[in-house]
Amino acid sequence: MGSIRAIWALQDKISLEADEEIALELKREMIDGHVRVVWNAALSLSARGFDFTDVDVSWIKRAIELWDQYSVAADRRWLEPLIESLCTVPRP
Question: What are the φ and ψ backbone dihedral angles of 20, each rounded to 5 degrees?
């Protein structure tokens, strides 16, 4: 339970503000009982910085390592920069 709450806290920390969601035309759709988030991929936001503690970074790394429900093609666009910024292991 602690790990789930830690991940949720990090998700809350990096979530988009309402005006950012509007700027991206973000929408939530219910499909087969699951929420699917879609947005206009032609739009973008300015980068913003985050201050993560070492513990936060370890939780993020752990979540990525254990994540088996992502679509390689669909999630790579946003997941790859996150992994690159957190991982110190060089690419193969």
Answer: -70, -40
Q: What is the pTM of this model?
A: 0.60
Can you give the residue range of the structural domain that contains 11?
Answer: 2-86
Instruction: Examine residue 73 and state whether it is found in any structural domain, yes or no.
Output: yes
Report if residue 77 sits inside a domain. yes
Could you write out the DSSP letters of every residue in 40-68? -TT-----------HHHHHHHHHHHHH--
Q: Quote the tokens at residue 15.
A: 């979530």
Q: Is residue 91 in some structural domain?
A: no
Backbone torsion region of residue 40, taken as left when φ is above 0, otherwise alpha when ψ lies between -120 and 50, otherwise beta: beta
Residue 90 DSSP class: P
Tokens of 7: 């991940």
Does position 54 have pLDDT exceeding 70, yes or no?
yes
Mean pLDDT score, 55-82 = 73
88, pLDDT greater than 90:
no
